[in-house]
């Protein structure tokens, strides 16, 4: 099952889970659909985007049938591509999506919740022998692939060197917060690709995924909006030094209006992801270089700001930032990071 944002709009989370569990079907989501299915569930493969856990493309490649629910199947460099020569069932509210980019063999036009309910009901009297035979073994294989994949990334996620590795920051952040009561969003570029494969969303609408377009700085407003909608939750945006160059002044809005978000900034003084494709421009004009002390900027706006350079200080700094938000102040944690550009794009 490939679940998209339409599952969120239809609030079809329970129906999706019922179908997956009843028929022992592994589930992945689009970046926009992330959190539609709990990513700690034994049948979860994680979310697909430009970066993804190894489980996503492994099981898509092996599938005989792919059911897309609440998705557009739009071709984009920021989404997971569908493998060729598969039987595709496309359940979408918008008939304009059908056969737009992906040829489908079967179409279901309708609301995701109603469509899933109808599927579950119509399949109730079908033979579940194959599904029952997968019970346990499928989950075990998903867990094995995931464990092996995580082991290969462990060095980056526990790196003790300075400048700080951004994967270390994100692991510490994941460990520090109450996941069930947190809403998080990424930004365009590296923050998106470094966060989405490893962040395990457990409750619906707890991860605001986006990315068919890449407006730098968009995540700040999303986090502020989430906090206004859910003042009881911890609301976080993760961004980089390029993104804060576009919308960083709006952190002043968060300070002035007392919107206590946690803003996690990866500052490597560079648009590092662009260096391999901008070598001439970088050599001649320093086109990927960026400078700024954004923690000081946050403090000057009246918020909490802290710059972190030592990996050993990450956990305590996150706790100080969270404490500031609980006291009603937006907090910006500026981590001085290395120029990490490797992503999990298997």
Verbal overview:
It is globular, with a radius of gyration of 21 Å. Helix 2 packs parallel to helix 4. It has 14 helices and twelve strands. The chain has 346 residues and is of the alpha/beta class. Helix 8 links the parallel strand 7 and strand 8. The longest helix is centred in the middle third of the chain and has 21 residues. The model has no long low-confidence stretch (mean pLDDT 96). It has two domains: 143 residues, Rossmann fold, CATH 3.40.50.1220; 179 residues, Thiamin diphosphate (ThDP)-binding fold, Pyr/PP domains (Rossmann fold, 3-Layer(aba) Sandwich), CATH 3.40.50.970. It starts with a strand and ends in a 10-residue tail after the last strand. Strands 3-2-1-4-5-6 form a six-stranded parallel β-sheet, with helices on both faces. The protein has a six-stranded parallel β-sheet with strand order 8-7-9-10-12-11, sandwiched between helices.
């Amino acid at each position: 099952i490939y679940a998209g944002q339409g599952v969120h709009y239809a609030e079809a989370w329970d129906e999706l889970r019922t179908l997956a569990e009843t028929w022992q079907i592994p589930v992945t989501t689009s970046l926009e659909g992330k959190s539609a299915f709990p990513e700690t569930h034994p049948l979860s493969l994680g979310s697909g985007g430009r970066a993804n856990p190894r489980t996503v493309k492994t099981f898509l490649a092996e599938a005989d049938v792919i059911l897309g629910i609440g998705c557009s199947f739009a071709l984009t460099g920021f989404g997971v591509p569908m493998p060729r020569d598969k039987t595709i069932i496309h359940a979408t509210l918008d008939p304009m999506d059908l056969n737009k980019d992906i040829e489908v063999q079967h179409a279901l036009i309708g609301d995701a919740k109603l469509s899933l309910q109808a599927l579950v009901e119509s399949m109730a009297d079908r033979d579940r022998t194959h599904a029952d035979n997968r019970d346990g073994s499928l989950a075990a294989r998903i867990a094995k692939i995931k464990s092996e994949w995580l082991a290969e990334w462990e060095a980056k996620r526990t790196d003790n060197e300075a400048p700080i590795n951004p994967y270390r920051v994100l692991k510490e952040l994941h460990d520090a917060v109450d996941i069930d009561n947190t809403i998080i969003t990424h930004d365009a570029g590296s923050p998106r690709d470094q966060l989405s494969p490893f962040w395990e969303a457990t409750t619906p609408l707890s991860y605001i995924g986006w990315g068919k377009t890449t407006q730098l700085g968009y995540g700040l407003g999303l986090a502020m909006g989430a906090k206004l909608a859910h003042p009881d939750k911890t609301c976080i945006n993760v961004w980089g030094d390029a993104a804060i160059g576009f919308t960083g002044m709006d952190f002043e809005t968060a300070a002035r209006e007392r919107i206590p978000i946690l803003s996690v900034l990866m500052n490597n003084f560079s648009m590092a992801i662009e260096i391999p494709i901008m070598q001439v421009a970088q050599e001649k004009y320093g086109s990927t270089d960026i400078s700024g002390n954004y923690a000081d900027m946050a403090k000057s706006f009246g918020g909490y700001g802290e710059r972190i350079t030592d990996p050993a200080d990450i956990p305590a700094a996150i706790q100080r930032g969270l404490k500031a938000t609980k006291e009603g102040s937006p907090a910006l944690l500026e981590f001085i990071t290395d120029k990490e550009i490797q992503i999990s794009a298997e």
